[in-house]
Amino acid sequence: MDINNCPSCGGKIEFSPKDDALKCVKCQKIFPVEHHKNVIKKSVYNDEEDEGYKEWEGSTRTFQCQNCGAKIVLNRFEMSTKCQYCNTSSLFPIDELPGLKPDGIIPFKVTKEEARKQFAQRVKRKLFISRKFVKNIPNLELGATYISSFDYSFYTYSTYFGEREVERHRTRTDGTTETFTEIRPFSGTKNHEFSDIVVETSDKLSQSEIAQILPYNYSEACRFDTGFLKGYSVGYYNQTVDTGLKRAKDIAHARLENMISSEYSRVVSLTVDTKFSNEKYAYLLLPLYFINYKYKDKDYLNIMNGQNGNVGGKFPISKLKVTLFSIFIGLIVLGIPLMVILITSILK
Asked: What pTM did the predictor assign?
């Protein structure tokens, strides 16, 4: 539904995660958004031009606010921003975007109010988190943004070979049993289908950062509709589909190695050769909160999955907890050989 102002009171229209619909911020009237499921993936080798981001990378763009008509300037890799005159989140006309257009979107499910509460709850579970920080979490600045990503799927056929340790037993001439380790080869083949390997294509975060807040539930993805974007920022993609595919294959290869290794015990070496087929992708927008705050005169930036509340990034840690844990590990490492020496001396 392409409306920017409430037809009843003239108030701003924004997407409401709580109502899963558009909502007037003034009179609270609800307007539905079309939820077309089954996002269609395309072949990665189609003829569509995917390097439009290069036109966006080194320049700014000016367009007209959809609400008040004022001129708005977008910086590199921005698809939307708030109008400085009417404070409405305005989206650059999708049809005028260079390069790829979004195929699908996972709508926000966590509201800003819920995001603040969930952040406070989830940081308590973080290792080495400062207790003082947990008891007095500072004021959080939340930026609700849809980040660009490519969602890949493909079939794989792998051949592999490796070596693993096998424990063996044999009887000595004196009747006692001797245990020893033998290295044995193994090999095989494996077929696997990968349906949702997501590669981030935003300049705002890295693949390792987005990995901290995965997974997203891709069954809730909808075909792209600008209604979901009202009230939110949107980032443009910054790499080619082919570049993303290479990264997706690297992720798949690592997963395949883990799958194969888990089928054998005590693997010491493994070589996997994989062939890929039926390679497809969809350009998805994923909901994410950027959480900014200051603690002890230091600036922190965390991220939150806007669908399930998973939190990632670096947090204020307790140096005392880190020190005590290091001492504990050191005592364990040193304690084992000391215990062996003590037992040996007693047995003598």
From this structure: 0.79
